[in-house]
Specification:
With 409 residues, this protein is mostly helical. It is 68% helix and 1% strand. It contains 17 helices and 3 strands. The protein has a 3-stranded antiparallel β-sheet, with no helix packed on it.
Length: 409
């Protein structure tokens, strides 16, 4: 029989857990609905748009208070350290460049905070939440985000005629959403790994396809079928991660050169499209910046010079913080990728997206990204996890079962 003291302690723990879960859900509820109703339609409402950051701040402060009483060994320390190293490097380089250029920008501090918030919150979540609570949060977040997406697009647009207008080749869809795309692919990545609930599995992939970012659609379909081909739970050797780091550094420098005016003919020959067409106008932003004889004043200075971002985050980091900042950034973020094949593939998508598009300043998308990788790396729950296939070509069996009878995925 439990003593009164033990019952009181359990009750307090349940209340704390309920507050943690509620703050997580409330944060993404505000994010989903304010993006759908206000941000996507260009309606000014700074208080409502920024209230999600207030909730995030409260969640972090509440988490830090709880962490003081945690007796168990903490996890996710290496990842937190790596991102702090990245941010510290960016700050130091930026301050030096500000001193040299004699220019300072108030947006610099905001950008740094947006880089720091995701990893701090995920560190707290992974150390304070049970996996079952994280799973509940992600289920509710998927539902809220999908509803927010429908509100953004307008339910009246979901007609057969509009579905017939979808053109993947020319990247057009009446249902495309810049504001929901990051959340949709994160939800897809989570529920393609934790596949126990079929409803959330197919709902998440439908969400990713509907938001219609071409690379995200390809990635979503890859996550659906890849576990039938390879063991995505297999550990990746460090040397392969290091090779990928080098490749991304070279890719960034090469892609930057290809988008410069002097490479326009080479670009068109290689891709069969003009720079402007292929990059959806992003190359024009870069060329405008170069025509201004841009001199960096640190992280965020491109937006202040150009009046908008380049929408190519890795190139922006290179131009704003030099090759040193780029190397430290790629190294640090890849060190947070975990060791499993699945998380390796997911981080590959995240970095490719940073190369050709932008998402680095979106703290709430990166909370989901870091949380997904952290769960797969540290929060094991086999009854929820994906069952990967180990093919035996000689006997046509999977883990001792006939391949034709295997239906768990």
């Amino acid at each position: 029989m439990e003593k009164d003291g033990e019952i009181d302690l359990k009750a307090k723990i349940n209340i704390v857990n309920l507050i943690n879960i509620s703050l997580f859900i409330l944060m993404y509820a505000f994010r989903s609905f304010t993006d759908a109703i206000y941000v996507s339609k260009g309606i000014e409402s700074n208080f409502l748009i920024n209230i999600k950051y207030v909730v995030l701040g409260v969640a972090i402060l509440f988490g830090i208070f709880q962490l003081k009483y945690k007796k168990e060994k903490t996890i996710y320390n290496k990842e937190l350290f790596n991102i702090i190293i990245v941010i510290t490097t960016i700050v130091v380089i930026s301050l030096v460049m500000m001193i040299i250029s004699g220019r300072q920008y108030s947006s610099f501090l905001e950008g740094i905070i947006k880089l720091l918030l995701p990893v701090i919150y995920v560190y707290l979540v992974l150390n304070l939440f049970e996996f079952k609570d994280i799973y509940k949060c992600m289920c509710v977040t998927l539902i809220l985000s999908f509803i927010g997406y429908i509100l953004e697009i307008g339910i009246n647009k979901f007609t057969i005629n509009n579905f017939m207008k979808i053109d993947f080749l020319h990247s057009y869809s009446p249902f495309e959403s810049h504001f929901s795309a990051g959340t949709s692919i994160a939800m897809c990545a989570f529920f393609m790994y934790y596949r126990k609930n079929k409803l959330f599995k197919y709902m998440s992939i439908l969400f990713a396809i509907l938001t219609f970012k071409r690379m995200a659609v390809i990635f979503a379909l890859l996550l659906l079928f890849l576990p039938r081909i390879i063991d995505v739970n297999k550990n990746i050797k460090r040397k392969y991660k290091n090779i990928i780091k080098i490749i991304f550094i070279i890719l960034t420098l090469g892609y930057f050169w290809l988008l410069t005016p002097q490479a326009s003919v080479t670009f068109e020959k290689f891709f069969g499209q003009s720079q402007t067409s292929m990059t959806m106008g992003r190359s024009d932003f870069l060329q405008s910046l170069l025509n201004m004889n841009f001199v960096s004043s640190g992280y965020g200075s491109i937006s202040n010079t150009l009046g908008r971002g380049l929408e190519m985050d890795l190139i922006s980091i290179y131009l704003e913080t030099t090759i040193i900042g780029l190397i430290v950034f790629i190294n640090g973020y890849w060190n947070c990728a975990g060791n499993k094949g699945y998380t390796f593939i997911y981080m590959m998508f995240q970095l490719l997206n940073l190369l050709v598009s932008h998402s680095l300043s979106n703290s709430f998308n990166w909370i989901l990204a870091f949380l997904i990788i952290g769960c797969i790396s540290y929060k094991r729950d086999k009854k929820f996890e994906i069952k990967t296939l180990k093919l035996n070509n000689k006997v046509g069996e999977i883990n001792g079962k006939n391949i034709n009878n295997y239906t768990h995925i």
